[in-house]
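Note to self: the last two entries modelled the partners one at a time, which told us nothing about the interface. This time every component goes in together.
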Amino acid sequence: MSLLQIFEGPLFYIAVTVFVVGAIWRIWGIIAIGRKTDISPPKASAKVGFVAGNLRHFLPRKIFAKRTWVHIIAGYSFHLGLFVLVIFAAPHIAFFHDHIWGIRWPALPRWGFIIAAQFAFAGLIMLWVRRFSDPVMRLISDWDDHIGSWLTFLVMLTGCLALQESHDALKATHMLFVDIWLIYFPFSRLMHAMTFFLSRGYTGMTYGRKGMNL
Amino acid sequence: MDLQKLIAAMFLFALMVMPLAPLQAQSVRPPANAVNQGINEQIGDEQIGTSNTLGTNSRSDYWRDLRQGRDGLATSGQTGSKLIQAQGEQWRNIRKLYIIKYSGWVLATVIVMIALFYLIRGRILLKAGRSGKTITRFSLPHRTAHWFMASIFILLSISGLILLLGRTVLVPVIGKSTYSIFASAAMQGHNLFGPLFIVALVWLIFMFIRGNFFKMVDLKWILKGGGLLGPHASAGHYNFGEKGWFWLVVVAGLIMAISGMILEFPWLAENLQLLQISIIVHAIGAIALISAALGHIYIGTLGMEGALDSMTTGDVDVVWAKEHHDLWYEEVTGQKVANPEAEGDQSAPDRAQVSVQSQITET
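The predicted structure of the combined assembly is written out below.
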C-alpha cells in the first residue's frame, strides 16, 4: 500500500471519524451547558434575537468601518474562497464521489476555482498578518490560533502545488495535511466554523430578550 | 610449386574476404549518386538538384534558410510560416549561458556581501539605547499591505528560483525524478500566486507612495553614504534607500507583473519572440528584486536595532526615530532634534520633553 493510498484511505477515514465525533462532542458540550434562567420579564423575543444576532454579525458596524475594513474584506475573501474551493473544485468533487458519498455535482471550471483559491489565500494571509500585527489580536492570540492558521494554509498550499495532478507524492502530501487538519479541528479554535452561530445566537438572545437594538 | 603456393594464397584470401561481403552490403556509405537523389526540390523559384548542380542554391543554402527561420519553408501554428524560430537558439543561449549562470552568482554575491557587511560593520545599534517611548510609524493597513506583499513575494521567489535554477542547483543533489516533483509544484504555485502579486503591488503602491518621492535631502543622504559608514544622514519618513527600494519594487514589479501575465497566459503574446523576451525580462527582474529584498530584509531585521518594530507593532522607539529619521520625527512632534549623533547623553531630558506629545506612547 502506497503512502497516498494510506493517506486517502485508512488515515483519511480515521481523521473523518475524529472530526465528526469530536465536532459533535464539542457542540453537544456547549449546548449541554445551557443558559442560566433569566427570571426578568422579556421585553422582546429571544428567538428573534438569536436569528438577528447571527445575521447582524455578517455586516460590519459603521462606526468601526475605518478600523476594520481590511480584516472584514480579508475574512469574507478567505471564508467564501475556501468554501467555493472545497465544495466546487473538480478534484474535490471527484474525491468526495470516490471516497465518501458517491454522488457528484457540477464543478467550477478550472479558472473559477483558481480564482477562488486566490481569494482564499489572499484572505488567509491578511488575517494571519493581522494576528501578529494588530496589538490587540497579538495579545489575545496563542499557539492554537497560529497552528490553526498555518495548518489551513499548508492544506491549501499543498493542494495548490498538486494542481497538475502529475505526481502522487504531491497529492499524498496534500492528503496528509488534510488528515492532520481534520484531526486537529475539533480540539482547536478551528471549531469556530461550527460554533460561531451558537455564540452569535447566545449574544443575540440575551440582547434580544432585553429589547436591545441589534 | 610456386603456382601451388599462389593458388593456396588466393584460396586463403578468398576465405578471409568472404565473411566481409555481407558486411560490405550493410555499409552506411551512400551510393555515388546519393547526393543528387531526392533533392530535385523547388525552393522558392529556384531549381536545385541534378538538373541544376551548379545553380544558385544548394542543400546547405536550404538548411541555412531553414535554420535562420526563412518564411515559406514550412508551416507551424504559433510561429506562423516558419518551421524553425531562429531567435529561439539565441534565447536558449542567453538563458542558459547568462541568465541561469550569472543569476546564481549574483544572489550568492549579494548574500556574501551582506554577511561581510555584518561582520565588518556589525549591527547598527541605537546609540542612546531604547527610551521606552514609542511613536507610530506605520498604521495597521500599511503593515498588512507590507506583509501581504512580503508573503506573496517569498512564495514567488522560492517557487521561481526552483524553476530558474533547479536544473543547475537541485538536479545534481536530488536527481531528475525528484526535481520533477519540485518543478511541478513550483510551477503550479508560481502560477497561482502570480496574479496575487499584482494585487499586492497595487495595494502597496497605493499605501506607500505618499512620502516616497525624492527630495533634495536625499542627495545629502547619498553624499553621506546613508550614515552607514560615516556621519549622521538626515532623513524624512523614508530615507533614500527606502525610497529607492520602493521605486525598484514599483518599476521592476510592474515589469514582472506584465511579463508574468504574458507567460501565464501565452495567448496574450502575439508571437513566440515576445514570450522569449518575457522569460528573460522576468528572470532579470526577479534576480534584481530578490537581491534587493535580501538587503531590505537584512537591514529591517538583523542589521538595525529597532527597525523591525515599525512593521510588527507599527510603533518605533523615539530614539530610533531621532537617530534614523530625524526630519520625520521633527515633522510629527514639532520638536527639533538638535544633534542626533549626541542623543545618547541628552536623551533623559529630551524624553521628558517629548512625553507631552500625543503621538508618543509610553510603553
